[in-house]
Amino acid sequence: MSEDLGTPVLDDHLHLDPEHGRGMAAVDDFARLGGTHLIVVNKPSWRLGPVPSEPAEFRPVFETTVAAAREAGERLRGRAWPVLGVHPGLVSRLVDDEGYEPGAAGELMCAGLDVAAEFVADGRALGLKSGRPHYDVSDAVWAASNAVTRHAFERGAELDCAVQLHTEASEDLTEVAEWADDAGMDPARVVKHYAAGRLAGPTPSVMSERDRLETAAEAGEPFLMETDFVDDPEKPGMVMGPKTVPRRVRWLLEEGYEDAVRLAHVETPRDVYGIDTEATLSASE
To answer: Which domain CATH number covers 93?
Structure first.
């Protein structure tokens, strides 16, 4: 029987790979501990197939993720939504391994984002994913990656959807938030995946470590919680497992952070993604 923590419990960034990884068994672990809602982000394209060489080759990865999110939602007391896009590490695969010039690599990544945008436009995905490498790259690759990020914001503005970002570790991304604003996006709908407990600029999706969560809870600013579960059998101990967010929600409640739990699992998801975790929960009970 699944535990009921008395609140919606959303993991904001988790990967599922039903063919190669734990897939729905991971979803069941999440649900059993009290998890109710998931944002399922597509794995990097080269993890589910070949390195893309044309826009159409992104589509199977997105289709796989949409199907996984649909199946996950059937096992939850709430819902699961896919967020689709192009992992920023692809630029290195294209430049270093495939011989692309940085500008051409960026153009292919923008085209992949355009394919992801089709899924958002027809209601099959909730938002987009983009960003820039978290490791050192050449100036040309950095510029191309920033151009891809700006393109994601342009599509997010057109579609009126959130954009999740994979970036370097930082507590100040105000410049990136300004790019979103320039594109016509509300910077609050830009989500920094794998965030620390405080962040200037975008909305932080905080890795569910106790110290980071305590910092976010004490700040009282909008935030989300995530594990970045990778669902890769070759990396079983990498990042956090699917049980982590429900366990940390229980801990936050025990520590008296009820307002922070509501902020992270009801109010911020509503403001960032336009989803109602309470209504979707009650509708499935």
So the answer is: 3.20.20.140
Instruction: Let me know: does 190 contact 155? Beta carbons within 8 Å.
Output: no
For residue 214, is it within any domain? yes
Using DSSP's 3-state secondary structure scheme, residue 229 falls into strand
User: What is the mean pLDDT of the segment spanning 118-128?
Assistant: 98
* Tens digit of each residue's pLDDT (9 = 90 or more) over 179-206: 999 999 999 999 999 999 999 999 999 9
Q: Which two tokens stand for residue 35?
A: 């998890």
Range of the domain at 31: 10-284
Structure tokens at 241: 């497992």
What confidence score (pLDDT) does residue 140 get? Answer: 98
Look up residue 93 and give its amino acid: R
HSE at residue 109, side-chain half, CA atoms within 13 A, is: 35
Query: Does the residue 3 lie in any domain?
Result: no
Please answer whether residues 82 and 123 qualify as being in contact, where contact means their C-beta atoms are separated by less than 8 angstroms: no
Contact predicate 275/38, CB 8 Å: no
Residues 6+ away with beta carbon under 8 Å from 200: 171, 172, 173, 174, 177
Band of residue 235 on the pLDDT scale cut at 50, 70, 90: confident
Mean pLDDT, rounded, of the chain: 96
Contacts 24+ apart (CB under 8 A), 263-268: 263/220, 263/222, 263/223, 264/10, 264/206, 264/216, 264/223, 264/224, 264/225, 265/7, 265/8, 265/9, 265/10, 265/37, 265/225, 266/7, 266/8, 267/222, 268/203, 268/222, 268/223, 268/224
Name the residue with higher pLDDT: 238 or 81. 81
Q: Kindly state whether residue 5 falls inside one of the protein's structural domains.
A: no
pLDDT at 149: 98
Q: Residue 89, Cβ neighbours under 10 Å: how many?
A: 19
pTM, 2 dp: 0.96
Give yes or no for residue 99 having a pLDDT over 60: yes
Q: Please count the structural domains in the chain.
A: 1
48 occurs within a structural domain:
yes
